[in-house]
Design a protein that fits this description.
Strand content: 35-45%
Helix content: under 10%
CATH topology of the largest domain: Elongation Factor Tu (Ef-tu), domain 3
Strand order of the largest sheet: 1-2-11-10-7-12
CATH class of the largest domain: Mainly Beta
Distance between the termini: 14 Å
Radius of gyration: 23 Å
Shape: extended
Largest sheet: 6 strands, antiparallel, barrel
Structural class: mainly beta
Number of helices: 3
Number of strands: 12
Length: 215
C-alpha cells in the first residue's frame, strides 16, 4: 500500500537519539488530508486511487469545472489536490470525507519524500553538472569556468542532444527514498524526518511509505 499524505516543510532542527547521538531532522507540518474522491477499477476511472486535498480556498479562487467537481463529491473546496494510487482492497477502506494525518506513520519507519527543489536560475556547467575548472595559468585566459569543447569530429560534426551545458538549474521534482521517520508529534501534527528533504521552507511535499524498504 503506497499510502501517503501532503505536508508542508517547516524547516530543520536537531534532536538527540536514544543513545545520546545528535542528528538533524526536517520538520514537516501535516494538516488533515481529506479524501476528496475514491477511484475504483470497477468504475469509470479504471484504476484504484485516492484523491487527497488540503488547504482551504475561497470560492472566488475556484473556476467552474473545479467547483463542479467539489460539489459532486460533496466536500469543501481544497487548494491543493494529489492523487495516490492504492490497491483495490485499500481503496475500499476509505470513503469521501475521511481524513489522513501523521497517524499514518510511526517512528523508525522508512518513507519516500517527493518535493520540488529550490530554483537556482541560470547557472554554468561547474555548478550545474559539477565540472572541474581548467588550469588557471600557463596560457589559460577567459575560459576559467567554461565547459570546453562541445562538438565532435567531422563525423557527425554536430553537438549531441543531451550535452551537459549551462542552463536552468533546480526547480524540478525530486524523490528522496528511504528516509527514516525520527519522530511523530501527533498533538501538533508534525513529522520529524531524519536528514533533509527537497525544497525551501514552506513548500509542499508528499510523504509516502517507502516502496523499497519496510520498517
Amino acid at each position: 500500500m503506497t499510502m501517503g499524505v501532503i505536508g508542508r516543510k517547516v524547516g530543520m532542527t536537531q534532536i538527540f537519539g536514544p543513545e545520546g547521538g545528535r542528528f538533524g531532522v526536517t520538520v514537516i507540518a501535516v494538516e488533515p488530508n481529506t479524501v476528496v474522491k475514491v477511484k475504483s477499477a470497477d468504475g469509470a476511472d479504471g484504476y484504484d486511487a485516492l484523491v487527497l486535498g488540503v488547504g482551504a480556498v475561497k470560492d472566488k479562487h475556484i473556476n467552474k469545472p473545479d467547483r463542479g467537481f467539489f460539489v459532486r463529491q460533496g466536500v469543501e473546496p481544497k487548494r491543493h489536490l494529489r492523487e495516490v494510487r492504492v490497491a483495490a482492497a485499500d481503496a475500499k477502506m476509505f470513503e469521501v470525507g475521511n481524513e489522513l494525518g501523521v497517524g499514518l506513520f510511526a517512528a523508525g519507519q522508512f518513507v519516500d519524500v517527493v518535493g520540488t527543489t529550490k530554483g537556482r536560475g541560470f547557472t554554468g556547467v561547474i555548478k550545474r553538472h559539477n565540472f572541474h575548472r581548467p588550469k588557471s595559468s600557463h596560457g589559460t585566459h577567459e575560459v576559467f569556468r567554461h565547459g570546453g569543447s562541445l562538438g565532435t569530429n567531422t563525423t557527425p560534426g554536430r553537438v549531441w542532444k543531451g550535452k551537459k551545458m549551462a542552463g536552468h538549474y533546480g526547480n524540478e521534482r525530486v524523490t528522496i527514498q528511504n528516509l527514516i521517520v525520527a519522530g511523530v508529534d501527533a498533538e501538533n501534527q508534525y513529522l520529524l524526518i531524519k536528514g533533509s528533504v527537497p525544497g525551501p521552507n514552506g513548500r509542499l511535499v508528499f510523504i509516502q511509505r517507502a516502496r523499497k524498504l519496510t520498517p
